[in-house]
Structure formats: C-alpha cells, structure tokens
Amino acid sequence: RKSGMVGVAFLVVSATSFSTPSKQPVLRPVLLRHSLPIASEKVTDPNAAQTNAEVTDGSGGIRQLLGLKGASSAEGSFLNWKIRLQLMKPATWIPLIWGVACGAAASGNYHAVWNLFGDAPTTSSWSVVGEDTLKAIAAMLLSGPILCGFTQTCNDWFDRELDAINEPYRPIPSGAISELEVYSQICGLLVAGLVLAWNLDGWAGNDWPVITAIAVFGSLIAYIYSAPPLKLKANGWTGTYALGSSYIALPWWCGHAMFNAASIGWQEVILTILYSIAGLGIAIVNDFKSIEGDRALGMNSLPVAFGIDAAKYICVASIDLTQLGVAAYLYSIGELTYAALLVAMVLPQMYSQISFLQDPVANDVKYQAAAQPFLVLGILITALAVGHHKF
User: Fold this and answer.
1) What are phi and psi of 292, to 5 degrees?
2) Which of 262, 258, 220 minimizes the C-alpha distance to 242?
3) How far apart are the C-alpha atoms of 210 and 224, rounded to whole Å?
4) Which residues touch 205 (CB under 8 Å, ≥6 apart)?
5) How far apart are CA 294 and CA 300, in angstroms?
6) Of the residues 136, 143, 334, 385, which has the fewest C-beta atoms closer than 10 A?
C-alpha cells in the first residue's frame, strides 16, 4: 500500500499549502466588496437576483444548515458549528450516499435483512447483515459528509469572489467564518477521509487499497475542480463532467469495493461513466443560477458559453439520452424487467422538463425536486440489474 500512502501525502501537502495571511484573519464583507467592485453592479437578470433573497416561509434556518439558497443570515453557535455545517452543504451529500448504496447493490455481495428470507445473496446470519449494514454506513460517511464536505468547503473557498455576486449569504463572503477556520476544516476533512478510506480497505479485506485510491483520486479531482491554475469548473465541459462523475461513478465504485472489489468489471465501469454524463446534465442545472456571476468573472460554464437556450437543451438531452441508452443496454443483455423499469423512471423526468425548459433560471430548484428522485431510482435499478446479471 506504499503507493496509496504517497497519494495521501501528496493531497495533504496540497490541502495544507494554503497560506493564511498574517493580516485580516477574517474575510469581512466590506473588504470583499472592495476587492470586487463588480459585485455592486446592477443585476441584469431579475430571476437570478431573486435567488439571493431569504425565503419567507420560515425555512431559512433549515436552509442555512443544509447549505441551500434562500437561507437565513448566519448566526453564532458553539465552535461555529452551524456555519461549518452550512459550508459543507449537507443537501449535496445525498447523491453520494445513494451512489454508495447503488455500488453495494451492484456488488451482488451486500446482505440486507431480506436476504435472511431467501433472496440472493442469501444468508442465515444476523451478524453478517449487521456487519454489512455498518460497512455501508461507513462508506456513506466517507463519500458524503467527509469527502463531499471537503469538496464543498474547497469549492466555497475558491469561489468566494463568485459567491459574493451569486450567493452573498454563503459563509465566506458574508464574513461568518474566518480563514483559519476554513483551512482547518479543509485539512481536517481531507485527513479524516483518507484515514477512514485506508481502514475501510482493511475492513473489506481488499488486497489492493481500492477505496483509498478512489478517495485520493476523488480528493484530487475535487481540489483541481475549484483551485487554480487548472480550475476545471472554469471550463463548462470538463468541469461539469468532473462534477457528474464525482457524484455518481466514484461513490458507486466505493460502495462496490466495500463488498466485492474484485468483481468490478469493465461493463459496470462503462455504465457508471455513462451515468456520469447524466450527472453532467444535473451539474448544468446548477449552473443556471450562477450565470450572472460566471459572466462577470469569466467562468465559461455551459450556460455562459452557449447561452441559456442552447444550454437547457444540452442539459435535458444529456440526462434523457444517457438513461435511455443504459435502458437499451440492459435490454440487449436480457435484463428486460430492469430496462422497462428504467424507462418508466425517465418518463416523469421528461414531464418535469417541460416547465424547466420554459425558464431554467426560475425553475431549476422545482425541476430538481420533481425529477431527481426518479433519476436516482433509475440508478439503483441499473445497479440491481448489474448485481443480478452474470457477466
């Protein structure tokens, strides 16, 4: 496992290479506005401007903790835990946690309660079920709160100028958290994630540290996604695909490796890469709310590069065609039931896209709430098909 430790050391050095300025340890909104005069320019898109307003339905506090827009103003808390949690955007953990569950299902070696009653893979041991449940939870903790939290904290740090335009309520541009607190959170989450990944490899009995390698690779992608000079997100195609694969393929592989790393085949890898194209479409949905700030700071997101009208069709096409392509593949290998179920999951997504295409800036959240449950169910259906099929 020496190669894994080299990767760990490299990423720790990368994360700790941030140098804390000796002056002004807290990013104050006044200083930030001074360095970003464009933030005070007139907003040209009324729909984008409305996204920064606090909601009036009383959910602002919950939105703050979940890292959602429409959040209430920052409040003090013990060890600043509310702000730290907001910085980690818990709402974004769900797809990665789900991805781990899909990988476990695809492994064909995860034992749930129903496997005690004859469903494959069968077992008669409650201890096996209990241990597999704990393994899954540990892998979900790694992929969701820890490494996704690391990713979101890095992203907010390097996006602090952009957020001053698009989402000024965020912890860093609002001055609610100090630079030192941000640095310590980045380093702490990174180290915790890599240590946990190493131990999960041991728990899973992997001869080669697959989970550690996935964690190292994912952390590196998370860093170069947000950080200069590469800053993948500055380019619409590379940035959105990197985001999509990080949310779908990597947690899936992690979940599978926790239960049967040796059975990860090329067919499964291709399927997850294809689903990452659908993840690209979801990432484009998130870009519409930031189009104003992206233009101002030269970020070449797809809505900026192609315009809103073209980008919205690229978005829905990547989501729909990918899933239909996967369904066609499942049909071709004889998994007819799973193929039909997957098509059934695509249809309500297409229906939700009608209002999204009419105004993607105003309806992005509405579309995600209505369509994404069917997308993630489709991913699970595909995973079950992989676990069921004998390649």
Assistant:
1) -65, -50
2) 220
3) 21
4) none
5) 7
6) 334
